[in-house]
Amino acid sequence: MTSPATTPLAARSFDLAALGLAAVLALHAPHLPWWLSAALAPILCLRWWLRRRRQARTPAWLKLPLLAALLLAIVSWYGNLFGQEPGAALAVGLLVLKLLETETVRDARVGMSFACFTLMAALLFDQSLVATTTVALGLLPPLAVLRTLEPGRQAPPALWRELLPGLGLLAAALPLALFAFLLLPRLNSPLWGAPNASEQRTGLSDRMTPSGFTRLLVDDSPALRVSFDGSPPPPDQRYFRAFVMSHYDGISWTYRDVANQPPVPVEASRTIRYRISLEPTRQRVLPTLDVPLAAPAGASLRRDHEVIADRPVDSLRDYTLESATRYRLEPQLGRYHARWLQLPAGYNPRTLALGRSWRARYGSDDAAIVQAALALFHDGGFRYTLAPAPLGRDAMDDFLFDTREGFCEHYSSAFTVLMRAAGIPARVVTGYQGGYWNAMGRYLLVRNSDAHAWSEVWLAGRGWVRIDPTAAVRPQRISLGAAAAAPGQLPWYQDGWLQSLRNHWDIVNRWWNLSVNGFDALRQRGLLQPFGIRETDTSTLALLLAMACVLCMGAGLAWVWRRREPEDAAVAALHRLERKLARLGVIRQAGEGPRDYLQRAARALPAQHDRLIELMHHYLELRYARPEPTTESLRALRRAVRDFPVVRMVK
Amino acid sequence: MRAALLRRLNQFAERRLPALTRLRQPEPLPIELGRRRIYIVPTAFGLGFGMLLLVMLVGALNYANNAALLLTCMLGAASAASMLLAFRTLDGLSLRGIRAGHAIAGDPLELVLDFAARRPRESVRLDCGGESLAFAVKGTTELRLRLATTRRGWQALPRLKLWNTWPLGLFRAWSWLHPRQSVLVWPRPEIAGPPPMLPADARERLRPQAGEELAGLRDYRRGDAPRHIAWKASARHHDLLVKDFDRPEPRETWRLDWQALRALDHEARIARLARWLGEAEAQGRRYSLQLPNERIDVDSGPAHYAHCMSALAVLP
After folding, report:
1. Confidence of residue A111 (pLDDT cuts 50, 70, 90)
2. I need a labelling partner for A92 at 20 to 30 A (CA). Which of A414, A442, B66, B109 fits?
3. Where along chain B do its domains lie?
4. What is the ipTM of this complex?
């Protein structure tokens, strides 16, 4: 017997293994550093070509340096080997290098098991329906490889047909998988640390540097989904606040988290209740519509009515809130007045001069100064673009008097600096604005590309008032979204009908998020409420899971044990007779024909001799004399068998 | 009473749990594999894969990553389903017959195993002695197996192990077959020895016989009969050509007799007779064989040779 450690790998298995690894690489490519994908893909292709076309093995002196280079590259890029992203990069790299030394059946088995693991790791980065389905399809090549490793197959089919049995297997496994998914007891708290929190995704940051948003504005993955009690607010009211930024250092605006101050008072005259489902951000901030009145569980309300969660949002997070949409926020500024006038010394002299000149011209009329600034943006030849010219040291001066192009960050930043220069308390607020109202699902889809920055100014008697200077330049940005504001500047897939198709498709993602990704320990406990079980604890779940396993295995066994042979009626009658005779002590031997058997039985049971011989002739005639037995004679045989006495005769 | 009870118990056990007793008792052909005699255990690779699934499961639960959990569940359920497929590959497979070839002791004997299945099967493996085969069954499949032999006479077939790890190599399903069938191994002829002593009248009865088969054409030699001249062929040559007929060398019939070898011991006699039989067959002679309890009349040909060798093989 040849052992898997020495059996060489067949060409077909190697092809499929290379295909599987290519799939793994493709699924991981979005979050791998580009140079790693660019290095691993040629290695994979070259290895395939060398083995298949040249029958060459990888020389041993090459493997170790490649491994060392991989480790070195990952450590130098990420700083360490542990954590989600370096771990995934390492796994993919090792997997591709494993193919270099895959020569035997055992190598292929190890490699393909590891490929399954690496595929699962891809789901740590993206858990959408599409990603999950793609990863599930990525399992097909490894499964196909494992099949091809078995010797003694029939002539192998075409390469793509090798993948189909795996699909069938996964489909057959689906019921049990669903049961297990529903019933596997979830952990209330993780056993070890959650994914590395220091790695940030593209998302709102607590620091705003003009032009730092561009990465976010072209990332159109969903950020949050909002459903409202009652009708949604009109498009120009859909401002979701995240960070309120007070401090400007000449380069960037920063949010300073102050935990020990109570929220400032707000006088709300109209409120709205809504529920937000937030995609993981790895950050603690929870965006809210306008000014929230209270924080949801597991989060707290900060001084300026930002909502900061106790822990970073590593998985989908649902929260319900009530916000004021018409309000007076912080009617009395009190002793904090100076904070909102802070400006770095020695920056932007022309901007400061402009602000001071407005103050001189309009006197104490703050509203007029605000209008003057908006009028400047509207009529001053400003242009909205996602690819503005770079700015120098005095960024706001360059922007206001020189380049005059930019997007929300530039406008809100410049506006706030102008206001502060004029002596009006002002601040930058970042968050999301707009969104797509999905009428079928009755929810608002807000994408990362809807990220926005605006300003708030404090006016006496009105409190903090939201001013969106971008709207002055490009009103479409507010009413129609970023794509309409900057036509031709966004990636092709964010434009036109395709974007609308994607907006409609999002309802599937929402359903997936609600039913699969959002299925946590809490929802699991309520799982059986419709069946009258109020509280489902772990032992109940385990019991149910065991029952489901037994049920599925039972169904599987029933399928396996079923023998597909429509039994001939005459044969069935003979079997019945056999059972009767067996009770009388005449057991049919394996390989004994019906004639021999019944003759033997007739000899063994003299009392039934004639009857058995008659039955034998009847049976043989039915089975072998005619191609199609008549129903009467069949019925007669059955009756004869049924009437055959089993009672042992007294000798 | 007690003996009868035990026998009945035994019969019951054999009927209900043939797996328990099948190892000891050979059974007649055909043998059809059923669920009572197929065993399944995970392979080493299956255990390793299970560990990997466990790691994936704990990881998915820990990170509360439901997509990964769903994927792990699917992979686990697919592994469990592969166990059923391993079982199904063997279930219903039947060994319908075994045909044995001929071999002299010490040489491998070729067996032809006739497997049948209603459904096509893939990657069934057979272990027999030191030999291992992998095959697919589609309808019926004949499998050639070489069985090592040591001594002449009837040799019982060894146990056969039918197994498979189809489709993923995670589970091994197997079943033992012990067909109640024996194969006959011929005696090994001695390597060299004297030719048989012929009776005095053997040579007289030989007459040169004119051959019947046309062997070829040759040049005319003086004394050739005119009716043997190939006139048509000669017309195209400047010499006469004569048809040459095959004229086999006359060979005497060997009458081999057990009693004529009194000087040798039992096995040596058999070995010598086996060698003579082989030589006679190779030279195309006619021969007969007289054994203590059997007499085989004069004949020739492979069937006759097999008959004689088998008679030698079963000698006590």
Report:
1. very high
2. B66
3. 2-185, 214-245, 252-313
4. 0.76
